[in-house]
Design goal:
Order of helices and strands: EHEHEHEHHEHEEHEEEHEEHEHH
Number of helices: 11
Mean pLDDT: 93
Strand order of the largest sheet: 3-2-1-4-5-6-11
CATH superfamily of one domain: NAD(P)-binding Rossmann-like Domain
CATH class of one domain: Alpha Beta
Number of strands: 13
CATH topology of one domain: Rossmann fold
Strand content: 15-25%
Shape: globular
Structural class: alpha/beta
Bound molecules: nicotinamide-adenine-dinucleotide
Largest sheet: 7 strands, parallel
Radius of gyration: 19 Å
Distance between the termini: 46 Å
Oligomer: single chain
């Protein structure tokens, strides 16, 4: 197969966390675009691994999809993989995600998110793979940034171990860029939602409670809200980053940090009411105190994203929630036991 810079525009892409929510959508898109994909995933128990196996099953039917079950912290595994495949690009999504879980298990969060990223960067350095997309998070802004969050903010007040682990990942990427010429796009993803979303995410929990007719716990004051971004818009951002990296001359490495967010704060009451409307039930809310580690409000400044990647996320929340609920209903009709809704 032709590599980067040759007439064939396809790439050999390593996707870590391939069986997860975002990873499984990304694999499908990369395959559709003609690329060859190697997915690494350890099917950890952060949520039911059976959900992840279902996520990746569509891609596994494709001849250019290769799944490696293993851990990104395993240098021997990575050396074997990088030694046998000349990857053009690595997209690093594998992580112990989520603010609340990181407060319960900070050590595990650091081990997977920081040591895992270190092992991957080291394998890339040893095997001279120079294009990297890193999944960072809006949580790195903490509560010190003025709204909207712009990429030139210092982002040095993380509120949770998860946020600190993602900022650490960005900083490691920067040092590998400076020391060894790695070209990197760090994408700060803002509250991603859509089909296959993780059971621990707020929307998943709200759906379960709305269906049971229970009130929704709304943490924080009326201003609490998130910039919700549909998974299709996130996958578009990753693919555009990959395309930019592909055409870079080898002697001009880049380092970019970009917000990938929709650019609108949805307050929790609006989220609850919109979701209630989609499900055809009235949303009742019960106010709760703000939780340790949570950023009260997020909002992406998308100016740099538009300039650098030539697009801005488009899927409106109401449309995105309709698609999500349609997908849930479809999954339930096939296998009611496998519905990935959780508790908030
Ligand atoms: P996910 O949990 O669905 O996917 C992560 C995948 O990584 C899982 O399939 C898991 O099994 C795998 N994994 C975990 N540890 C691993 C390890 N040590 N080795 C190999 N595989 C491992 O999560 P997601 O929501 O798809 O998130 C993907 C990435 O995007 C993560 O890095 C996350 O921090 C980041 N992110 C997500 C959101 C969001 O709202 N979903 C927001 C900001 C950033």
């Amino acid at each position: 197969m032709a590599g980067v810079g040759e007439t064939d525009r396809t790439m050999r892409v390593l996707v870590t966390g391939a069986a997860g929510f975002i990873g499984s959508h990304l694999c499908e898109r990369l395959l559709k675009d003609g690329h060859s994909v190697w997915g690494v995933d350890n099917f950890d128990d952060f949520y039911d691994p059976a959900i992840k196996r279902r996520n990746i099953s569509i891609s596994l039917g494709h001849t250019q999809m290769h799944l490696v079950e293993g851990d990104v912290r395993d240098s021997v595994l990575l050396d074997g993989l990088f030694g046998s495949i000349p990857f053009d690009l690595v997209v690093h999504l594998a992580a112990r995600p989520g603010v609340r879980p990181s407060i319960r298990e900070p050590g595990l969060c650091y081990d997977v998110n920081v040591t895992g990223t270190l092992r991957l960067l080291e394998a890339m350095r040893r095997h001279r793979v120079s294009r990297f997309v890193f999944a960072s998070s809006s949580s790195v802004y903490g509560d010190d940034a003025a709204l909207p969050f712009a990429e030139d903010r210092p982002a040095c007040n993380p509120l949770s171990p998860y946020a600190a682990s993602k900022r650490s990942g960005e900083l490691m990427c920067h040092s590998w860029h400076k020391s060894w010429g790695l070209s990197v796009y760090c994408l700060r993803l803002f509250s991603v939602y859509g089909p296959r979303q993780r059971p621990d995410l707020a929307i998943s929990g709200f759906v379960a409670l709305l269906r049971e007719g229970k009130p929704l716990p709304v943490h924080g004051g009326p201003a609490t809200g998130r910039d919700y971004t549909h998974v299709d818009d996130v996958v578009e951002g990753i693919c555009r980053s990959a395309a930019n990296l592909r055409v870079l001359p080898a002697n001009a490495p880049v380092f970019r940090i970009l917000n990938v967010g929709h650019g609108r704060t949805v307050h929790t009451t609006e989220l609850a009411e919109t979701l209630g409307g989609v499900l055809g039930v009235r949303a009742r809310m019960s106010r709760r105190p703000e939780r340790v580690g949570d950023v009260p409000v997020t909002l992406a400044d998308t100016t740099l994203l538009e300039k650098e990647l030539g697009y801005r996320p488009r899927v409106e929340l109401s449309d995105g929630l309709i698609r999500y609920v349609e997908w849930l209903n479809e999954v339930e009709s096939i296998d009611p036991a496998a519905v990935p809704v959780g508790s908030s």
